[in-house]
Amino acid sequence: MTTPSQTVGPFFGFALPYEGGWELVPEGHPGAVTITGRVLDGAGEPVPDALLELWTGEPEGVRQRGPAGMGFGNAGSAGSAGFGRGGFGGGGFGRCATEPDGSYRFRTAPPVRPYLPLLVFARGLLKPVRTRVYLADVPDPLLGSLDPDRRATLLARADGKDAYLFDVRLQGERETVFLDF
To answer: Which InterPro entries did the record assign (predicted)?
Structure first.
């Protein structure tokens, strides 16, 4: 007999978010971009207790970070904030809990692919949902397969120099495209 799935949260306050988790690269990193946005439910209301993970394949300058004491490997380089998994170099991820207004932010290196993978954990979900953040409308097999309205849900909007807005809509009108692997 198998055990049925349970929903994901809201229990993200312990050990999952960690100080500086939104910073995949240090301040002043060449070409760093900041992505901000909100997680919204089907009625367009903010989701105040979601958790997002942004992944990058940037080969240099990205900190593979994790919370202290969680078995993520060696501590980061001297002077680094938080706990690093092997310091800078290699791909990494950042983790950010949403604020009461559903907002989040990440600072990362520019993507080496046309997109940045994003996972969203939220109450009511049995498993995290996966999507992509495209910083530009570029030729891509996934984008090319979508009608314009659905395609738009994967495109971040420029918000000044090296800053982008990307809202995640979990369902309803303008629901973000989620991927099934």
So the answer is: Intradiol_dOase_core, Intradiol_RC_Dioxygenase
Worst-scoring range by mean pLDDT, 83-87, 101-105, 174-178? 83-87
**Phi, then psi, of 161 in degrees rounded to 5:** -70, 120
Return the amino acid letter for 170.
L
Query: Under DSSP, is residue 149 helix (H, G, I), strand (E, B) or coil?
Result: helix
Model pTM?
A: 0.78
Tell me if 4 is assigned to some domain. Answer: no
Please state, in angstroms and rounded to a whole number, the distance separating the CA atoms of residues 44 and 178.
17
First-to-last CA distance in the chain? 25
Q: Is residue 172 part of a domain?
A: no
- Cβ neighbour number for residue 179 with a 10 Å cutoff: 12
Least confidently predicted of 30-39, 89-98, 125-134, 154-163: 89-98
Q: How confident is the model at residue 108 (pLDDT cuts 50, 70, 90)?
A: very high
Q: How many domains does the chain have?
A: 1
Distances (CA, A) of 68 to 20, 78, 83, 170, 172: 12, 15, 5, 31, 38
What tokens does 2 get? Answer: 């198998």
